[in-house]
């Protein structure tokens, strides 16, 4: 595991995506503990992509247009569903004013996991990214890829916790402003929809 891998991974993880958005929204609405659950769920959602990279399934996803489209549109539908639920303020990232929401940790984790698991681009990313740091002719390349993937997941979890805890801190003050919460709810819904439409027009290249 090289310094180059660690630095590159951190930069990639820091770039805001659907997982970061979900973790921040959950932290803001439901507090620090809930944000950690969201971070854990998003991290778990990486496991299918890691397994696909290790066992070569991502290559099948990369070459099979039908399979890629099926997974992609499942992900698009889920992101649009989250956008609608958030806009209506009755979904897993509900942002009602005045109180931290007692949302089920299991529900938070499952939502975060699905957000990443239903993104076929993540599997293709792992297929392209991890082999750059593994010796192709090594007899242990599968184990090496797995270890790098686990390291990536650990870093993801730590960074997402940072995002979530910071959002939870901001939420202590933001929850007192109805105007801010209304603006944030609509912005979050629009962001989920935007990620969904971006995924809809992506390809398996």
Your description of this structure?
This protein is 77% helix and 0% strand. By secondary structure, it is mainly α. The chain has one domain (18-88, 102-200). Helix 6 runs antiparallel to helix 10 (178-200). The mean pLDDT is 79.
List the helices and strands and how they pair.
Blueprint: H1 3-14, H2 18-30, H3 32-44, H4 47-55, H5 57-63, H6 65-88, H7 105-117, H8 120-129, H9 141-174, H10 178-200
Helix pairs in contact: 1-9, 2-3, 2-7, 2-9, 2-10, 3-7, 3-9, 4-8, 4-9, 5-8, 6-10
Attribute tags:
single chain; 205 residues; mainly alpha; 10 helices; 77% helix; 0% strand; globular
SSE series: HHHHHHHHHH
Stretches where pLDDT is under 50 for at least 5 consecutive residues are none
Radius of gyration from CA coordinates: 18 Å
Number of helices: 10
Q: Summarize the amount of helix as a percent range.
A: over 70%
Q: Report on the biggest sheet.
A: none
- Mean pLDDT over the full residue set: 79
Distance between the termini: 27 Å
Shape: globular
Number of domains: 1
Strand fraction equals under 5%
Computed structural class: mainly alpha
Give the number of DSSP strands: 0
Give a summary of the structure in a few sentences.
The protein is mainly α and 205 residues long.
């Amino acid at each position: 595991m090289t310094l180059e891998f660690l630095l590159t991974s951190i930069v990639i993880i820091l770039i805001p995506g659907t997982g970061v958005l979900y973790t921040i929204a959950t932290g803001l609405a439901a507090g620090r503990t809930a944000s950690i659950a969201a971070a854990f769920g998003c991290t778990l959602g990486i496991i299918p992509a890691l397994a696909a990279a290790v066992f070569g399934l991502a290559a099948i996803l990369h070459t099979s247009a039908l399979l890629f489209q099926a997974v992609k549109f499942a992900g698009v539908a889920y992101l649009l569903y989250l956008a609608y639920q958030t806009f209506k303020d009755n979904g897993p990232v509900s942002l009602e004013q005045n109180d931290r929401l007692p949302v089920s940790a299991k529900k938070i984790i499952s939502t975060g996991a699905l957000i990443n698991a239903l993104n076929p681009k993540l599997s293709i990313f792992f297929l392209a990214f991890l082999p750059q740091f593994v010796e192709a002719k090594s007899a242990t390349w599968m184990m090496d890829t797995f270890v790098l993937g686990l390291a990536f997941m650990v870093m993801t979890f730590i960074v997402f916790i940072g995002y979530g805890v910071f959002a939870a801190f901001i939420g202590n003050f933001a929850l007192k402003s109805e105007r801010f919460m209304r603006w944030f709810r609509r912005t979050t819904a629009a962001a989920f929809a935007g990620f969904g439409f971006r995924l809809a027009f992506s390809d398996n290249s």
